[in-house]
Amino acid sequence: MRFPFLLFLGLVVAPAAPRADAVDKQHTYEACMKLAEESPDEAFEAALTWQTRNGGWAAEHCAAVALIALGHHGEAALRLEALAGKVESKQARLATEILAQAGQAWQQAGKIVRAVAAQSAALELDPQNVELLIDRGISLAAARNYWEAIDDLNQAADLDPARAEILILRASAYRMVDGIDLAREDIGRAMALEPRNLEGLLERGILRRLNGDDAGAREDWLKIVTLAPASPAANTARANLEKLDVKIE
Fold it and tell me: How far apart (Å, rounded) are the C-alpha atoms in residues 96 and 4?
């Protein structure tokens, strides 16, 4: 998951020594967010109790993160969007991060249109945020808006040209619009940066298969199974290998 569970933003604002209550709130926030990773059901109950004791946005945020970990992605996304609206005028950076999380939660809920809307709202606050551009590119591709996804990934690549993940995602999008030569160029650059990247190997294998290079495709997909046999990429690689009449036990 690309979702950053711990966001320690904007709680201690005093220019000199922070107030004791602000420090306590920060510590409570950090503890709650950590608990949301380790025991989300306990974190959710703790966050609800904290809300009744003037926990403010930090308690609401922790409750929403706990709901994501519990698999209640739609409810969490709604809470995050509402929370972003509360903090936006005072803490734009925090609102951006919360909207980004809402977008990811909508993705996990399978609500792609809602994901794009949340990510677009976040990008209005921070137009050059690479992570947000990647996230919206993923959502747009999931909605089969491949050219729009490519636009976002182009911008992300301009901002972070040595990031293999961006190149792999763009290669996949190019493949879906029959831009095979551009896809091969991107995947070649990505694999030069990260030769063992599982998603990169998967995509390169697909491109090799489309080019009639069954041996090259088999090599890439077998490498995924060897490197990370329990990964989702390995499951996809096995399915592809079966189509080449290679059975993986």
Answer: 13
| Cα 125 from Cα 7, distance rounded (Å) | 17
For 192, half-sphere exposure in the C-beta direction (CA atoms, 13 angstrom radius) is: 9
Give 165-200 pLDDT, tens digit per residue: 999 999 999 999 999 999 999 999 999 999 999 999
Task: Write down the number of H helices and E strands in the chain.
Answer: 13, 0
Closest listed residue to residue 160, CA positions, set 123, 121, 133? 133
Cα 141 from Cα 176, distance rounded (Å):
9
CB-based contact 10:93 (threshold 8 Å): yes
Q: What is the tens place of the pLDDT at every residue in 150-164?
A: 999 999 999 999 999
CB contact at 8 A, 42 and 9: no
